[in-house]
Amino acid sequence: MAWIRNVGAALFLAILGSATLDGAARAQDPPADAGPDDDAGLKATTAKLNAYVKFMNRSLRAIQSLDRYKSWVNMKTGPTGHESIIYGLYDVYDTTQEAANATAALTQEPLFPELDAAMRDYIAANAALGPILNTANAYYEREDYKVDKMATGKTLHAQIVAAAEPFLAAHAHLDVVFRAEKAKADELRLAAIEKHEGRKANWHVANIMMRARRIMDLLPSRAKPVVDIATFDAEMVGYGGAVKDMDDYGAGHPNSFFVFESQPRSLLSKLRDFQEKIDPAKGDARRGGGDDLPGIINDYNAMVSSSQSATQFNK
After folding, report:
1. Distances in Å between the alpha carbon of 148 and those of 72, 73, 81, 131, 156?
2. What SS3 class is residue 154?
3. DSSP label at 225?
4. Rounded distance, CA 276 to CA 132, Å?
5. Backbone angles phi, psi at 88, to 5 degrees
6. For residue 219, which of 160, 115, 315, 301 has the smallest C-alpha distance?
7. How much is the pLDDT for 7?
């Protein structure tokens, strides 16, 4: 089942824009008394969640390193030195600054008790795992296992397993509670944009990204290879309608979207192809649709990137 990817690790978590959430477009310098960011609570929420997002994105490298390690090591027995291919790991990124910013945000308003506690646990788990992964990566890059007959590799394996289990558990819990809080913030931001600007270009981009993210959250993974068909189909109706609404708006307002305009359609097309394959398989992507996931994820990540400036040049 090599096609089943860790979707959470494969997707970018979008930085929350100064005027919209989940990678949606920035407002066009609204008047001082008319912009959605005049809501102090919304600004504070955006700043706090941004600090969390930056740390979560930076720390995804640890999950990628573990995945590489698991690709050649039997996690129950550990490395032997007789594996056909020894890939090693990946060096993980320094998260000192991102961790400091996220730690400072823990006690900043607004307080989210469950999310803040989950983030605190994740920061600690990442701090414990990161140095071990880097030590192991250096050991395998030097090919020291050829000299010590994998003795250090076996010792490191025990340390990796001991630190990885709480790290992965903390990450899984954080992912769930973060998405719940972010979904609330997305709705608030969308309502604020509509209040101050109406359903114009910024609103359509924000609406598209919010609905696209909901579908991404439903994609299969190794842990959950079966898609909830009813929920997926319902979200597809919402996303399809949002794409058509944006196209209709763009037809009446030329040059409203920069680069971004065709991307939601491309993603919708790929998602509908995927939907056609998983429906007869009763949602089990192992039986159909699994090979479509890389293209879907790539299209979504491209949307996240381009949505940041999607309406920047429309005035």
Report:
1. 19, 18, 10, 21, 13
2. helix
3. -
4. 44
5. 80, -145
6. 301
7. 45
Look at the block and give the residue holding tokens 């607004």.
110
Partner residues linked to 284 by β-bridges: 226
pLDDT digits 0-9 by tens, 159-195: 999 999 999 999 999 999 999 999 999 999 999 999 9
Cα–Cα distance measured from residue 216 to residue 212, given in angstroms and rounded to the nearest whole number: 6
Q: Give domain limits for the chain.
A: 1-30+199-315, 50-183
Q: 45-73, pLDDT tens digit by residue?
A: 999 999 999 999 999 999 999 999 999 99
> Angle 113-141/40-70 helices, nearest 10 degrees?
30
DSSP label at residue 93: P
Beta bridge partners of 38: none
- Dump strand ranges (E) for 148-288: none
Here the tokens at position 56 are 């979560």
* CATH architecture assigned to 1-30+199-315: Up-down Bundle (1.20)
Which contacts of 73-80 are long-range, i.e. CB under 8 A and separated by 24 or more positions? Answer: 73/157, 75/161, 78/153, 78/154, 78/157, 78/158, 79/145, 79/150, 79/153, 79/154, 79/157, 80/150
10 Å Cβ neighbour count for 113? Answer: 8
Q: Show the beta-strand stretches assigned E in the chain.
A: none
CA distance 51 to 25: 19
Give the list of residues 6+ apart from residue 293 with CB closer than 8 angstroms, or none: 3, 4, 5, 7, 219, 220, 274, 285
